[in-house]
Amino acid sequence: MPEVPAARAALRIVSHLAAHGDPVPASLIARALDLPRSSTYQLLRVLMDEGYVVHYPELRAYGLGGHVAEIGSAVLRASRLGSLAMPLLDRVVAEAGLPVAAQLAVLHGSDVSYVGQASAPRAPTTVVRVGVRLPAHLTATGRAMLAALPAAQVRALYPHRDALITRQGIGPATLADLDAILAAARERGVASEDGEITADYASVAAVATDRGGYPAAAIGATFRSGTAASDVRERVAAAVTAAAAQLTSRLTGRA
After folding, report:
1. Separation between Cα atoms, residue 193 and residue 100, nearest integer Å
2. Around Cβ 12, how many Cβ atoms within 10 Å?
3. What string of pLDDT tens digits covers the 255 residues of the chain?
């Protein structure tokens, strides 16, 4: 494993601050971790810039920043979502009528991150699995969530609106192309992609929202496109739509 001393030292500083309830002076951090004082100040400045550390000028000391709490909250949210959604993913697999891989995804900026998965026997093996991040505008789950956002927020996520990336050389190349796809997803109530992530595989997905109507997650299903007739695709779409509606109900406490 390659050694990256600065990265290791920065992580040690964060861990040291986490172990102390009160702010800690830089000199004590350097002494406790056996770090040069000059390097300690440099690392603290970088950690401050990234939101991991805050400075208390009156105390001449440092403590953990809000970004650490945000990461912890995100992990807790993903864990909570996974617990609520896993039975629903299993139900999608059971109701699809063909071998599918069902996924739970959340939105991170203009990417989606997969936080849950259930697969049928002989389900397709794709790049989509727990922990993977992909461009939201190319995935069915991402499109389902983007379609639930205000248009202004979608535009803010894609400042380079005339140069959207593609994975297989197909898919929306501009924000105008994406707008048309999202409009169709809103009208239909389900988003889809076909071959834009992995050749010969297609996906459909529906969004689950929180109490404020914000897209909290999306439930999707991936299958081999050549084996799915239109009526079978509609059955898969109905399964993910029902599962997303049930997840919305579980998140909001509303029927």
Report:
1. 14
2. 16
3. 345 688 899 999 999 988 887 889 999 999 999 999 999 999 999 998 888 888 888 888 998 876 676 665 565 566 677 788 899 999 999 998 888 999 999 988 899 999 899 988 887 777 677 778 899 999 999 999 999 999 889 998 888 778 788 877 788 999 999 999 999 999 999 999 998 888 889 999 999 998 888 898 999 999 988 766 788 889 999 999 999 999 999 888 776
Give me the half-sphere count of Cα atoms (radius 13 Å) on the Cβ side of residue 115.
Answer: 23
Distance CA 179, CA 184 (A): 9
Contacts of 62 by beta carbon, 8 Å cutoff, 6+ apart: 17, 23, 24, 25, 26, 29, 44, 48, 53, 54, 55, 56
Q: What share of the chain is helix, strand, coil (3-state, %, to 5)?
A: 50, 20, 30
Q: Which domains does the chain have, with CATH numbers?
A: 5-64 (1.10.10.10), 76-252 (3.30.450.40)
Q: The whole model's pTM is what?
A: 0.71
DSSP string, 34-48: T--HHHHHHHHHHHH
- What DSSP line would sit under 61-119, residue for residue? EEEE-HHHHHHHHHHHHHHHHHHHHHHHHHHHHHHSSS--EEEEEEEETTEEEEEEEEE
